[in-house]
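Run log, item B.
One chain of 367 residues. Sequence copied directly from the ordering sheet:
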Amino acid sequence: MGEIRAFRREDGPEVASLYLKIMRGRGGASSPTLADYLGHIFLDNPWHQESAGPLIYIEDSKIVGFLGVMNRPMKFNGREVRASVVSQLFFDRTLHHGMGAFALLRKLFSGPQDLSFTDGAAEASALLWEAAGGDAARLYSFNWIRTLRPLRTIQEHSIGRRRSGLWKLINGAVAGVSGPLDTIAQSLLQGAFKPLTPYEIVPVDADTLLKTITEIGWREKLKPDYDPKSFQWLIQQAATAKYGQLRLRITRDSDGKSSGWFVYYLKPGGACYVLQIGSRRSDQYRTVLRALFADAAAGGGSCVKGQSQPKKLVDLTEEHCIFRHPNSSVLIHSKDSELRAAIHRGDAMLTRLDGESWLRFSAEEWV
C-alpha cells in the first residue's frame, strides 16, 4: 500500500525524472528546468493552498505517481467558489501495478474545493476520472477550427505529419504550391472577415485587458474571478509557453466603446490557439470572432482553433468553424449538484485560460 502526500519543492527533480520517463520515454533523464517549473507553477502560483494542492504517490520510498493541481477562484450565482484545475497525472507502471492513480483522484475529490476540472484529459484519464466519481462535460469537449489558409491547414493536419517515403515527396510538392494557392484562397476568403458592424482591433496589456473583462463581465452563472495581481501573473506565465506569440486584443465599435476581447497564440504558418474570447453583447460575438480571424490571418496563421463554448455554437457554425471531438475531454467533479448542472447545460465559462492549456509541459523538450 502506497502513501499519498502533498508535493514539495524538494520533490521536483524526482518528479521531473518521472515525467520524462513516462511522458517522453526518456528513462534515467533529468531536467533542472522542468523541476524548477514544477515548483514554480504548482507551489508559487498566487492561488496555492496546500489543502488542495499537487499530490505525489510514494511506494517503497520512491515517487511513482504525480497529480498536478492548481487552485483558481471562480464565482457561481454571485458566490465565491474554489476550483482545482488538474494537470499532469502520470504513474510509473513498471514500479506500481495497483490503483494509485485512482487513489490520487479520490484524495483530490475529497478536498475542500467546490469544483475540480481538467480540459485536456486523454481517454484513459477520462475513464479513470469517471471511475473515481467525476464525469465528462460533453458540451465543452468539442474543439472548433476555422481555416485561414486551406492548403497549409491540410498540410499541417495530414500530409505534413507523415515524414517518410511517398508521403514525404507529396508533402514537398504540396509545400511548393501551397503558398501561392493559399494567397489566392485567402484573398477570396477576405469577405468572411469583413465586419458585420465596424470594429477596431486594439493591442492591450494585461491590466487593460482585465479592466475590459471586468467592465463587460460574463453572462454565465459559473465564471472566472480575476484580480489584478494574479491575472498579471497568469498572463506572464502564458506568454512564456512556446505555442506562439501570446496576443491580447480588445475590439471597439464605431463609438469607441469596447465590444469584446480575445486572447490567443499567433503562430505564423501554423495553428493559432485561442485561450479566451468574449463579447459585451450576444449579437457582437460574431464580430469579435471575425476580428480574431482577421488578426490571425494578418499575422500569417494557417488556421484558428478554440474550445467549444456551448452558448456560442450557432455563432461559431455561422462563421464557418468546423467541429471535432479530439482525443481529450473536459472532465469535472463537484459535490454541488447545482454547480454540476450548470456546467452540463453549458452555463459555465470554462476557458482555456482558466484550465491547463497555457502550461508549458507539452510545448518544450525539457533538456
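Observations after the first pass:
- The mean pLDDT is 90.
- The CA atoms of residues 155 and 362 lie 22 Å apart.
Flagged for discussion on Thursday.
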